[in-house]
Amino acid sequence: MITKNIIKSYKSWFDNYVNQFVLQYPDMSENIEIKANHSRKVRKEIVALAQSLNLNNEELLLAEIIGLFHDIGRFRQYAKYQTFSDSKSQNHAELGVEVLKENNILNDLSKKNQEIIYNSILNHSTAKIPPEKNERIVFFSKLIRDADKLDIWRLITEYYMVKEQKENKALELELPDNDEISDNVLESIINKQVVMKESMKTLNDFKLLQIGWIFDLNFNYSIKRLHEKKYLDKIFKTLPNDDRINKVRDIVDNYFQEHIKILTY
What we know:
This protein is 65% helix and 0% strand. It has 265 residues and is mainly alpha-helical. It has 2 domains: 4-147, Hypothetical protein af1432 (Orthogonal Bundle), CATH 1.10.3210; 175-263, no CATH class. The radius of gyration is 18 Å and the shape is globular. 33% of the residues are buried.
């Protein structure tokens, strides 16, 4: 059984773990804190999402653990490689599972819950959830994928608003910032498909990938929250004002219109 005391101990361990990196790598502390704050906010996002689905207390606490630990591998990744790009370093989700297992963090949970947490972490950043017979793993993977996206949208739109005054290449995955947009990235969104990370060549591609996440949301609550927060509008404001982007905007607007009944429940 998962208790609130277990959650409290996990939060304490998380804070202490992050602080070790802050103290050991003071020059990297800003981005370490950004990722720590993201994890804390994803924990809140996933709980709110889980509550909207009327999950029971045990399920709410399980979701909260997944939210808190989903990016625990980011700190080791950034300290070792000075990048948040998995393709230039290591898969941060796999690193996260390694960290939790090395530190025996989940040993006080049942094997079933451990399996759900580990697999949800592994699945949170994949292009698609891999085929899985365990429906609970699929369900909690969907929860964390939505919650993670919602807070990344917050994080990156806040950054884009101050980018000219305070550039942070790590948040841009060190991609070149020019007017170029890759054809295959545009094609994916036109077909209402998630953009593959391998397709990205520029920062504009990355922004379009972030916009394309709308097609990978799993729950009505997530679509409603995205619409209310106007995150995609904020990203569009940073993209070139041309026919290509206008076409993407029309697709996104139509997608929201198609879900308008959901958005007004």
